[in-house]
Sequence to fold (607 residues):
Amino acid sequence: MSTVVAPSQAPAGAVARGLPAWWQAAPFSAVFALFFVLPLLLVLMVSFWHFNEYELIPGFTLHNYAAIFEGCSQRTDQGDLCVTLSTYLSTLKFCVLVWGITLLLGFAVAYFLAFHVPSAGVQTGLFVLCTVPFWTSNVIRMISWVPLLGRNGLVNQTLQGLGLTQAPLDWLLYSDFSVVLAFVHLYTLFMIVPIFNSMMRIDRSLLEAASDAGASAWQTLWHVIVPLSRTGVLIGSIFVITIVMGDFVTIGVMGGQQIASVGKIIQVQTSYLQFPLAAANAVILLAVVLMIIWGLTRLVDIRREL
Amino acid sequence: MSRSMPRSMTRRHAPGFWPLALVFALFVAFLYGPMLTIVVLSFQGPEGGLTFPLRGVSLHWFAQLAQGLGTVDIGAAFMRSLGLGAMVMVLTVLLSVLAGLAFRKRLRGGQVLFFVTVASLIMPSIVVSLGIGLQFRLLDDGLKALLAWCGADALLEGYGSSLGLMSSALGAHLTWTLPFGLLIMFAVFNRFNPAYEEAARDLGATPWQTFRHVVLPLIGPSVVGVGMFGFTLSWDEIARTSQAIGDVNTLPLELQGLTATVTTPAIYALGTVTTVVSFAVMGLAVAAAAWMKRRRRKELR
Fold:
């Protein structure tokens, strides 16, 4: 998860002997061909198939896509958007909220680690402290909010004990709030690591120069550090946005299975074996995600930065 | 403070240190606090509930867990996840190291392979999972049609599904762990000094000897890290496994299902157990890497 590029072709002759490169890369490539590229192509193909309750019927139809956007050209009688659009809007809302919060928090943490912790040993220690939860279970980290945020949880007990609220607050758990909280809890790390990595590559003499030229700490941060960290910001943003856009586990568990999301729709349709519909939804989701990533990379030319 | 130090270091702390330190401390508390509460609550007394206060301290809920929760056999799911995690770990290490070595040479199509690997890392997991699930169902349909066409009715009767722990689920996990493995190998080889290999070759070592006695000891600790990534990521994986597994579930999938139905601290006990396994693997990895480094230093002396 760092900004490493494929090492440019090694100096000829340095490691030219031994197994041919392709044989060494073959098993690795085979895994991605079999379990990534082929399945994605199948998703694209099946999104154009017919289906009934029993079987998938090969063919070419745009019916699945039409079904997804059925009724989306106008508002319903109650003045609501159609299911698909309102689900995408709700998922995008989570995306923007989580992206903003994780970016601010992740940047602050990375900035503190990179520029305010003087000893390299302490820096590594604190960095590892931030990354350890990444290797533990996400579901466990989600349900660990229950004893804190539930109706009889620690937060409600404390608020009532202090006399700040009369009745327990219901919006703390199984709500939009708890979903965003869990996302921030789980995925701020995906911002911290790339931003920290970018910051550690900044030549420290630039900061000296800025300060010698009379820049305040704030000006140095805004005019030197932020622009030089943007690759990290971009990579972190791509991680967070793609995770939230496709999520169904966090929104499911923390939303009490009551909040809709694009990932959830795909999951439900798959469980009803409506593969062509699920596939069409997956293609649309992918298109949306790719457009967001494309938009982000317009802001930062990633290849020039690496 | 010596005079040669940069000016900013001579001040005790740069401006903004304390507010940022506070943010950092709160962030760490935010990361670990909730986890700590469920570890504590998993030792809840038999009368206790999902929230504080603790009504006594007991191992009651761990005993409940061992007997199974509802219809779910936790022990079996635990062993399945352990087996799958071990398999994913071994394959992630082998394939990542091999691919890392390949990328150091002139690798035709290396850029494409790299692009696909990164794409797999950021692809929404539900899409990958759906694709693999679909692939194996189409494979099933194809095989059944083939068996029917051959008239192998006995085989057809016995045929279940090609979806499974060590087929589709294994593949799904590898699409998630291998990108991490390859990126770590890139980071390692970017800092690797090829002079050691050249020296070994000049002394007449075969490519295998060079790898076994020169390269491997040098990259050993990082390879252990790749293994740890492989196991822990597989051990907790849900999203990519969800649609790509047949009749049996892995432990995290069972756990996810149980969050909706189990309303006793037994679920916290399960959380504590899986977290202990994650930490044990991390601890083993750190110990193994430290041991390798120490042994190398001894050999050099």
Observations:
- Residues 266-300 of chain B form the longest helix (35 residues).
- Chain B touches chain A through 109 residues (CB under 8 Å).
- Chain B is about 75% helix and 0% strand.
- Residues 82-263+281-300 of chain B form a domain with the MetI-like fold fold (CATH 1.10.3720.10).
